Amino acid sequence: MPEASTYLFTQGTLGVVVVALVTVVIKLYNRSEKYQLRIEELQELRLQDSKEVTKDVTEVLQGNSQSNRILAEKIELAKVEGRK
Q1: Is the dihedral of CA 17, 23, 28, 33 positive or negative?
Q2: Is the full-model pTM beyond 0.90?
Q3: For 14-79, what is the HEC assignment?
């Protein structure tokens, strides 16, 4: 009889350990899913911000290009008037 109670005690202990490990694994998996969702959300926000910055930079570059073109035209006009 002592062998049977020892066997049952050992199996019960192993059962408790398995349940505890399964619980820990499930909680860690759920936490990693939450982190993955947050990472995807942040990547989407970063992409949106990148598009906005690209738009702003493009506008500034177009403004600079226009200013350079106007300045070049003024220089050419000054050269032509200087020759007269």
Answers
A1: positive
A2: no
A3: HHHHHHHHHHHHHHHHHHHHHHHHHHHHHHHHHHHHHHHHHHHHHHHHHHHHHHHHHHHHHHHHHH
